[in-house]
Amino acid sequence: MDLGLSRRIIAVILETVMAISTIVFLISVIMTFTAADKNYFINSFANQDLVQECNNQLNMKYEALASETNIPARVFERVEQDYPTDEALRQAALSVFSEENETLYSENKISYFYELSVEYLDGNEITYNEEDVKRSAEKAARIYSDTVGLHNTGGIETKINDFSRKYPRATIISFVIAFVCFPSIMIMYKKKKEGYLVAIGGILTGTVATALGSLLAVIFKLGGGINILPEIHKQSMISTTTKDFLILAFLSAVLSAGTISVMKLVDKKLPDED
C-alpha cells in the first residue's frame, strides 16, 4: 500500500476519533454542570414559571374546594404565604435526595389546614361539624401535595448520581484522547499545512455535529426520561432540559465559528505544499 494512502487512512481514523472525542467532551462539560448537578436540579426545578403555575392551580382547586364547604378559598390559599411555593418546591426537590417526604403530604399539613379552617369558622361564629372540617383539611392537604409536591420520583436520585460520576470522567477521558490525537496527526504530516487542517477539521466536525444534535434534541423535546408527577413538574423539567441543549448548541456553534476562523488563519499564514 502506498505510504501516502496509509497515512491518509490513519489520519482519517484519528480525525474521526477527534470528532467523537469533541462531541463527548462538549456534552460532558455542559451536563456536568447541569443534569449531573444536584443543586442545579433543585434550583432549576423551582423556577418562577413553575411557581406561578402552581399558585394558579392551587387557587383554582381551592376555589372548587370552597364551593363544597363553608370555608372561603382565601383560607386555604393562606398556605401560599405561610409556606411560599418556591421554597416548598425546593424542599420537595431536596427531599428526593435526603429520603424525606417529597410529596409534602403529612399529618402536620392536615393539622395546619384544620387549624386555619377552625380559626375562620370560630372567628365568624359559624357552626360546623368537626369531622367535616377534618375531611376538608385532608382534601386541602392532598390538593397541596398533588400540586406542589413531587410524585413518582423513583430513579431521579440514581440518575443524577450516575451522571455525576460518568460525565466528569467522560470529560477527562475525551480531552486526553483529543489531546493525543491532535499532535499525532501533526507528527504524521510533519507539522505541515495539511496536518493542521486535518487536525483542526476533526474538532470542527465534532463541534458542528454537537450543535446539530443539540438542536434536534430541542426540536424533539427530549426530557431525560424523568417521568415525575404532577404533569406541570414534568413539563418544567423538559423545559430545563431544553435550555441545557440550547446552551450546548450555542457553545458548539461559537466553537465551530472559532474553529473555522482558525482554519482560515492557518490556510492564509502557512505556505502551500507541493
* Inertia-based shape: rod-shaped
Give the helix level as a range of percent.
over 70%
Mean pLDDT: 88
Radius of gyration over all CA atoms, rounded:
28 Å
Low-confidence stretches: none
The number of helical elements comes to 11
Major sheet? none
Task: Please identify the oligomeric state.
Answer: single chain
- Span between termini: 21 Å
Structural class, please?
mainly alpha
Tell me what portion of residues adopts beta-strand conformation. Answer: under 5%
Number of beta strands: 0
- The arrangement of helices and strands along the chain is HHHHHHHHHHH
How would you describe this structure to a colleague?
It is built from 11 helices and no strands. It is mainly alpha-helical and 274 residues long. The longest helix is centred in the last third of the chain and has 39 residues. The radius of gyration is 28 Å and the shape is rod-shaped.
